[in-house]
């Protein structure tokens, strides 16, 4: 199942070796933490691939008989796709811990799903080297939820992942000084991975918005609407990851979740009042369960 992956520790990242995971200490909270994030990353790429394919098909249908325009669009689309593919590779590299990547998306998805399903209940060693069940702060429920959602082929809620992350941080108060060093390393490694995942998410959104902005310049309203629907489908899919777009357009400016990068005169939007958002230049996002900010929305306001 899957190609052989070199079992090599990375100094920069907390490595997870898919081929040898059952031979390492699977009674570790960090295994669940990292595997849940790995699963979400693969799912996100799958959703993006489908949306991008729909965009590409719509371009072919619209400009297939217009050679010059088709060439221009193909060039632009290929450039955007190449940039995203590089981001995907970099994200997988970080989350896998610097290991070789799997080229087959479906095979990778199947492999990770089966490995998560086979993970054993979490246990830790106390200071007397006695094995004890780890069950606090709803951790047991979160682990079960991760396994159940993966089994059904669903994305893992970031609420569950964050609860497991909190459990890792709680271990700092329960472990010896030696173990604390290892736990801090796990936390730092995971922070790098979640940062990489969020970077992938934001770049995926921005790439689809870029295509939408290009489309609006054509004044082909029906086609622009198609691209808009595809982009919205991707945004809606983020809700299953526990990520939501910050509602900004038409709202009064909020410095905690928005950044103003310009203003517009009242004449362009008579229905809006001073300090209301006229347009969104870059979408902002937050975790839906906790409202924790991921990225501020960049906006134009009425002066």
TrEMBL record:
Top-level taxon of origin: Bacteria
An example molecular function term from Gene Ontology annotations: adenyl-nucleotide exchange factor activity
Identification of the protein by name: Heat shock protein GrpE
Species whose genome carries this gene: Priestia megaterium Q3
Keywords carried by this UniProt record: Chaperone, Stress response
Source species taxonomy: Bacteria, Bacillati, Bacillota, Bacilli, Bacillales
GO biological process: protein folding
InterPro entries on file: GrpE (IPR000740), GrpE_head (IPR009012)
Pfam families noted in UniProt: GrpE
């Amino acid at each position: 199942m899957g190609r052989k992956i070199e079992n090599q520790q990375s100094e920069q990242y907390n490595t997870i070796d898919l081929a040898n995971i059952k031979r390492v200490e699977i009674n570790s909270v960090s295994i669940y933490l990292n595997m849940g994030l790995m699963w979400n990353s693969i799912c996100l790429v799958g959703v993006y691939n489908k949306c991008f394919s729909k965009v590409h098909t719509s371009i072919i249908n619209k400009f297939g008989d217009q050679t010059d325009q088709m060439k221009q669009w193909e060039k632009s689309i290929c450039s955007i796709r190449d940039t995203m593919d590089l981001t995907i590779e970099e994200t997988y590299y970080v989350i896998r811990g610097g290991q070789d990547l799997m080229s087959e998306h479906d095979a990778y998805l199947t492999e990770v799903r089966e490995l998560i399903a086979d993970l054993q209940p979490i246990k830790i060693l106390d200071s007397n080297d006695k094995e004890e069940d780890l069950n606090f702060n709803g951790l047991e429920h979160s682990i079960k939820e991760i396994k159940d959602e993966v089994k059904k082929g669903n994305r893992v809620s970031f609420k569950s992942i964050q609860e497991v992350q909190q459990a890792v941080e709680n271990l700092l108060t329960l472990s010896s000084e030696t173990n604390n060093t290892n736990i801090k390393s796990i936390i730092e490694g995971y922070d790098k991975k979640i940062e990489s995942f969020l970077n992938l998410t934001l770049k995926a959104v921005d790439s689809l918005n870029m295509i939408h902005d290009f489309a609006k310049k054509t004044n082909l309203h029906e086609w622009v609407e198609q691209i808009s629907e595809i982009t919205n489908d991707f945004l809606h899919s983020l809700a299953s990851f526990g990520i939501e777009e910050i509602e900004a357009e038409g709202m009064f400016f909020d410095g905690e979740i928005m950044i103003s990068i310009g203003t517009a005169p009242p004449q362009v939007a008579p229905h809006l009042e001073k300090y209301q958002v006229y347009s969104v230049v870059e979408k902002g996002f937050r975790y839906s369960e906790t409202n924790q900010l991921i990225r501020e929305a960049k906006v134009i306001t009425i002066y």
